[in-house]
Design brief:
Chain lengths: ~300, ~300
DNA sequence: CTGTTAGCGCGTTCAC
DNA sequence: GTGAACGCGCTAACAG
């Protein structure tokens, strides 16, 4: 085929806006150029950010992204037409068992976990432990000693991520020779408020509060505001996520760069799908403290009269 | 085929976790059971909500969702492998020309616009005009007269949605016999702050501010807080979107239920794809004022000495 | 290096 | 009613 013929063909293809059918080519190559992403919901800021980064990275690699929102873990794999329909599966923030992963891998090829980890499975996640440990030390360095940790806990226990965050706080407190003070409430919009309610009813409330997530911190902030407790005047408040609301509320927090998480995952998946050997199949990304105006040195103790 | 054989086949399929290849079936039927969604980005709360609702509705209809994030309008259609790869196209918040729509429809089948509208094209959007008109009346009813509108404007002009919002404000003000007062800044995080800066430098600042979106209101709120202007004490502030931050900041706003927008779009697309006649191909959804604590009656004018 | 052909997995049709 | 054969659009392997 001469170059000029090539050009004519190209021009014709352009003219008719021809595009190869990945449907048909996938049929013969066995590769669909599609990656299935399973996520609890697209609505929360964190998930949306991860999937956004993922989408950009996959697009760069020439892969399309199928997004599935699945609430219940049990039936998710049955409702998904996976076999022959995607080259890989990305599970965002899903606590899967090894069996579920194996089953999924059997049907959908490589499985990559985001925000969770499972021994032997490819995963991308942040260093939750270091995040809360660093956050706790930030508060310690400001001079706080009575630092409470507020978080969510379902009846079924805590996710790996939640556990790691709690442990980071515990470790930093213990290292400093201080007693950890943990309050957990059931997840949901009222979580932070309820936790603050409990803390404020204590005879000697904390001078600083570290929340498991910005969402929890948000509720806490509202409860403190409504109770007339100045932040950071009386209580310093710190979140975890760097949610949009955090900058809105000038909330000190821990940036976990979810979009980067997604982007790194995308590159990893592309390597896996396209037969390249990824340098590392289990990536842990660092986090970063973002100091803002909701944390300050504790008010001097009023000397008793 | 006897029923018992059917059952045995079903059992075997279950056992081997067999799933029909939409790839192959699409090849022969011409239907891919896939819908392409094009959205500027998944990160902003509004887009994530729309796509989330869309995903749920499509899933119910047995359709998979391909998500494409595209920033630049010009090349978006070339980068997307559309032909034979999706049954329909949903464009979220993209200002398309009729030519682009026609081209897209030629390649991807039915095109549905969300958050925008184009004569003759299927679209789902909210009543922006009624939203800002209602919001303005809310402020008028509280007793405000000097009500400013702040929004964003690029060099290229305003989107239909922005224009509709501005017009709603204009109309309500004119109806009340008051002079509209509009301040627009270039979009971005600094938009609200800059607008408030301009308003506060006026010799007689407004007593109420209506923002084009919660994002703008957010910046405005921050600027007011930093300037020590009490909200709603000195200035009432109102947003538009019912973003998460709005409830966090107790901001009065206009709920536009983006997830419902997505869900309605999903049903419409499913009807179109599956050959049903949709009842209406151009849906306008109502909005609702959400009163919170950032709006109140204006402070009594201090009588001059 | 170019042109031809088989067959990927499935739905439809046509013959039985 | 059941079953076989064709072809959807494409790629890979092979023959010229």
């Amino acid at each position: 085929m001469t170059p000029e013929v090539r050009d004519k063909v190209r021009a014709a293809a352009e003219e008719l806006s021809y595009a190869v059918s990945r449907n048909a080519s996938g049929l013969v190559t066995g590769r669909t150029c599609r990656v299935a992403v399973v996520v609890p919901s697209l609505r929360p800021w964190y998930f949306a950010s991860v999937v956004s980064g993922l989408g950009h990275a996959l697009h760069e690699a020439g892969l399309d992204m199928l997004v599935h929102q699945v609430g219940h873990l049990e039936d998710w794999i049955h409702t998904l037409p996976l076999r022959h329909n995607s080259d890989a599966l990305v599970a965002v923030a899903l606590e899967l068992t090894e069996e579920q992963c194996a089953h999924a891998a059997d049907m959908a090829g490589p499985v990559v976990l985001v925000g969770e980890r499972l021994p032997g499975r490819a995963s991308v996640h942040i260093d939750d432990h270091a995040g809360t440990a660093g956050a706790t030390r930030h508060l310690l360095n400001l001079g706080h000693a009575r630092i409470a940790y507020i978080g969510s806990r379902t009846d079924g226990g805590m996710s790996l991520s939640s556990t790691a965050r709690l442990n980071g706080y515990h470790e930093a407190m213990t290292e400093a020779g201080l007693e950890p003070w943990t309050v957990t409430k059931s997840p949901g919009p009222g979580c932070g408020e309820l936790a603050v309610g409990e803390l404020l009813s204590h005879q000697s409330p904390p001078t600083a509060v570290l929340a498991e997530s910005d969402n929890v911190a948000l509720g806490a902030h509202r409860a403190l505001r409504r109770s007339g407790v100045p932040v950071p005047g009386a209580i310093s408040l710190m979140g975890f996520d760097d949610h949009d609301v955090s900058s809105a509320l000038d909330l000190t927090t821990v940036d976990q760069a979810p979009q980067t998480l997604g982007r790194v995952t995308g590159h990893l998946v592309a390597d896996l799908v396209q037969g390249r050997r990824p340098s590392d199949t289990c990536v842990e990304l660092p986090v970063q403290i973002v100091p803002r105006q909701s944390t300050a040195a504790p008010r001097k103790r009023r000397t008793s009269p």
